[in-house]
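Ticket #4471: structure export looks truncated?
Reporter: QA, pipeline team
Priority: medium

Steps to reproduce: submit the single chain below to the structure queue and open the exported record.
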Amino acid sequence: MNIFKKGCMTLLGVTLISTQLVACGSTTDTPKASESGKAKPVEITWWNFPSFQALDGEVGKYEKQLIAAFNKKNPDIKVNLEMLTYEAGPEKLNVAIASNTAPDVIYDAPGRILDWGKKDLLAPLNDMITDEVKKDVSPALMKQSMVGDQVYMYPINTAPFMMGINKTIFEKIGALDLLPLNKPDRTWTFDEYKKALEAVKEKAPDVIPSGFFAKSQGGDQGTRAYIANLSNSSFFNDDYSKVAINTDKAGAALDWIAQGVKDKLVVSGAESLTGADVNDLFLQGKLAVTLNYSPVLKAQNATLKKAKFDDVLVPFPTIDGAAPKLEPYLGGMAVFNNGDQDKIAASKKLVDFIANDPEWGKKNLIQTGGLSARNSITGLYNDPEYTYAELARKFYGNPPTVADGYAEIRTYWFPELQRVLIGQATGKQALDSFAEKADAAITKAKAALKK
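Actual output as written to the record:
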């Protein structure tokens, strides 16, 4: 169907993971053979965001090496690589889809992939996902890979979104004991968190205690989870039929953030800052706590720090120290249904190689800086922060990205946060306004999908 019809590592660990990758690998349709008996040459296009860390500082260099390795096993499949940026990539994809020039395969995240799946733009990958694989991937991650009973994204790497803390700052002011690092699960209460911020304000006046941002959509998962956990709330109800974040407690949490700006516990001018702006303050050593962090970002930031410091991961605080609800980052691959079965089959072979090749499957995971989407594949890194991140996966909650109308819903989020930050609305008023608009978007999206 045309897509526009609807418009770890010890030696033993390495061996074990390689075995698991082979065992969990899938069989995919192969391109048809030519009259000579050889596989028919196929040319496919792979568009890729910077899903893998740049090799030697060169964006795309790692991907080119990966393709060369793939071609040794699949010489009749030519892969044309095009790297996308996070800034211009989304619009380029929209234009390509609208003009019938979508790529054949892409490495991306659920937010866009599920939206494409709901519009019948993608080829299902059910033939690649065995029962063994499904059992080895958490329900929260499989939910982000599927629309109904159709798998549209092959899950590869994951990481829990958490908070990042400049550990060095707390060591310098003698307040390391205020962080929950001595607890195996690192959970903490709002009062404990607030006390830590106040210590930074008092003892390191040149450092901003915590970050917040509300200028653009990027990093919205950080602000969502922050407010939800500070209020022990959920963003959506269990069946994603309506927004659930507009509680009195969540409104109070948002009011506290706005007051925190005035009290110098939260970065000033948050209404005009992006997630990238706040991340840059963290990399400069000017910010003690950042909201939108993960093992992937920690790895990517290792060479981008403008000040020398150790960064650690902690979950969002909750009112009473109850288990937090963390949103899972998930990266994976999707295949566009461009109406050419040979290209679809070849694209699936590339996906299978990237995810499951005995040698490159492990390399690729490490190059993403993330954890494996498979529960059984662990110990990829000799790093206590990654060890903790693997433990923190138990806090995965329902991912908001699977909601119908999510792409529209997220556009209403930051404008409401801005209204609170500039004093035009209380937290509850803003969240009620957001819920009204978001619920309408859900209703509209569900109606459109039924047509």
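Status: closed, not a bug. The export was complete when the record was re-opened. Leaving a note from the reviewer for reference: Confidence is low (pLDDT under 50) at residues 1-27.
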